[in-house]
Design goal:
116 residues; SH3 type barrels; 3 helices; 41% helix; alpha+beta; flat; 2 domains; 5 strands
Length: 116
Amino acid sequence: MDPIFIFFLVMLVFLYLLLIRPQRQQAKRHQEMLQSLNVGDEVVTAGGIYGEVTAIDDDRVQLEIDADVRIAVARRAISNKVSPEEAAAMADEPAEAPEPMTVEEPEALPEEQARR
């Protein structure tokens, strides 16, 4: 056999083991997680929104993100389920309101500069 052919064959096997196979396994795990979604599960979307599943359709999932606030997201936008321990910890933490933004008034320009 030609050494160049063997080199390319080894490179293809290496690329498969290093890149393609792990990506396929991750996609398979994600698909299995999406298939196992149930009403009442706590999930996080790819955009970082946490919510509880209230309804499931073939393509969409309805999430309750706050009291009486529901949104519909694509099923594939669910990145993972939140463990019950993490969900309980989030429920126990008090929500902190962000500091209000303050805007400083600009200094008044002298009349000479204002006329220009």
